[in-house]
Amino acid sequence: MLKDVKWFTILIPPIYFFISIIYNYGNNNGFISPKIIAFYVNCIPITVCVFFLIKKAIVNKIYKLVILTAFIVYLCSLHQLVTFIPLWNSMERIVVYGPIQLLNLVPFKTIIKSPITEIMVTLLMLTPLAFSLMSLSILKSKKKTIMVTMLVSIGIELIQFIENSIGSAFLVYSRITDIDDVILNTLGGAIGVYIYLLFNHFIGKGQSVRLKISN
Question: 209 or 41: whose pLDDT is higher?
Fold first, then answer.
């Protein structure tokens, strides 16, 4: 039953971005404006990614369905925050003022200078990713999960670098490609793995207690 129900979560990305379209529709003239096109374009890759994740996810308990649903909402939010492609900036030539330095390849350079709140946000940004990948049995190896988290972080930084490189022609500077983000994200992935191990331990203990009581 749950194996079939899990496929309803594929509707989350279109709904998520449709709400964004409705929210922004009042400031646009029709469904072919730059901002609306950007929402359509950004919805496609995340929906394809979610399809393959749902396919691999093992959902045999209610709490796993809840985790899968929360995981997809998290991915949509993460995409909108860090890899969303703001097409209207280049199409409408909007200048986004931001940091002058767009690339940092020196480890720990920005970590030393950054406030603790910013460090914690970056550290925990991909923690739900690692936790969900293991909770849904999409990945079963701790090392592979941490490696995938690192690769996802590198992918995010590469996308941001490409966006910055293209955006520089339109005076768009809004994101920094930073090796320190990869370091912190990877550590956050390790935290996610160990949170899963603790979570799984307590779930297992709870099931053992219920079995003893029923016997």
Answer: 41
**What percent of the chain has a predicted confidence (pLDDT) above 70?**
76
| Dihedral pair phi/psi, residue 104, rounded to 5° | -135, 120
Instruction: Give pLDDT tens digits for 71-101.
Output: 999 999 999 888 887 665 555 555 555 545 6
Kindly report the pTM of this predicted structure.
Answer: 0.85
Alpha carbon distance 175, 152 (integer Å): 17
